[in-house]
Amino acid sequence: MRTALVIGTGLIGTSAALALSGRGVRVHLTDHDPSRAQTAAALGAGTDEAPGGPVDLAVVAVPPARVAETVAGAQRRGLARGYLDVASVKGGPRRELEALGGDLTAYLGTHPMAGRERSGPLAATADLFEGRPWVLTPTAATETEVLNLALELVSLCRAVPVVMDADAHDRAVALVSHTPQLLSSLVAARLEDADETAVRLCGQGIRDVTRIAASDPAMWIDILSANPGPVAEILSAVASDLEETVRALRALESADEEKRHGGAAGIEDVLRRGNTGRERVPGKHGAAPAAYESVTVLIGDQPGQLAKIFADAGRAGVNIEDVRIEHATGQQAGLIQLMVEPAAAPGLTAALREKGWSIRQ
């Protein structure tokens, strides 16, 4: 691939353009808002000048509802040898493209499983896709050349290709991406009118659950409008679980011991099912999640503190598998949880204590 055209210079389009430009591909940028393409060009993502002829690959990075018309229009103008989109829904746009008379042989629907809470070209990074799954949904009609161009794009972006059926992809992302977004927003919405005293008690749990609730509503309306059925089915199942959980909690208020026992059993059931489901989430390098042990350390909110604790752990010969930080409310300090292999925890604890760190049990 020597040349590419990125149509749509938001977070995903600009990030792909930055990755391609950084690896020697000449990238042309266009957007319905010329100022966004100019911003992306200023960031080093390519040029906002129109290509002089057909490019090798056109990357369509527009909302799902606009994918089909954008691809069809680009094909009519002969802008590229191959066309792919990076929208988060795959089945509907492909059927719409077919209905518009688009050339399915030169088109491939894809979806990089990466993103951020922020949007727009200024949020883009060249390493956004590194190590992340990038779904490809070829069909029997897809030309080999187009599939190879898509695989080259994924490789240049340092992502991991995953081949799926388009409709299976849409059901999967409804479960692992679209429903979590709505549930996060539903929990965060409870905070809108909450008493300030309650909000000041927010800890890491509520921060974890509501992190993605900061996402752009307009973007998510576009996504959910393109995949409403699968998301509604999952939310319906969640609603049934919620109803059962509410009944179980009400039973715990009862003076009847048998009802309280049944309520506790109902709560335990959903918690245990949650444990089982969480264990299926891939861990480090895609393997089954390991049972790490946490070494919790009090850390000041000053420059260099994180670097110092990581250096001290490195000198102790301990590999940090994961990190979590819980900031203290109203204080210039917090707790950092260093996740390590269980066998390494005692040695790390002793080494950090020797260096003067305050270990919390």
TrEMBL record:
Keywords: Amino-acid biosynthesis, Aromatic amino acid biosynthesis, NAD, Oxidoreductase, Tyrosine biosynthesis. SUPFAM superfamilies: 6-phosphogluconate dehydrogenase C-terminal domain-like, ACT-like, NAD(P)-binding Rossmann-fold domains. InterPro entries: 6-PGluconate_DH-like_C_sf, ACT-like_dom_sf, ACT_dom, NAD(P)-bd_dom_sf, PDH_C, PDH_N, Preph/Arog_dehydrog, Prephen_DH. Belongs to the prephenate/arogenate dehydrogenase family. Residues 257-286 are annotated as: Disordered. Its EC number is 1.3.1.12. Signal peptide: none annotated. Residues 294-361 form the ACT domain. Residues 2-289 form the Prephenate/arogenate dehydrogenase domain. The keyword Membrane does not apply. Gene3D superfamilies: 6-phosphogluconate dehydrogenase C-terminal like domain, NAD(P)-binding Rossmann-like Domain. Residues 269-282 have a biased composition (Basic and acidic residues). GO terms for molecular function: NAD+ binding; prephenate dehydrogenase (NAD+) activity; prephenate dehydrogenase (NADP+) activity. GO terms for biological process: tyrosine biosynthetic process. Pathway: Amino-acid biosynthesis; L-tyrosine biosynthesis; (4-hydroxyphenyl)pyruvate from prephenate (NAD(+) route): step 1/1. It comes from Streptomyces xinghaiensis. It catalyses: prephenate + NAD(+) = 3-(4-hydroxyphenyl)pyruvate + CO2 + NADH. This is Prephenate dehydrogenase. The keyword NAD applies.
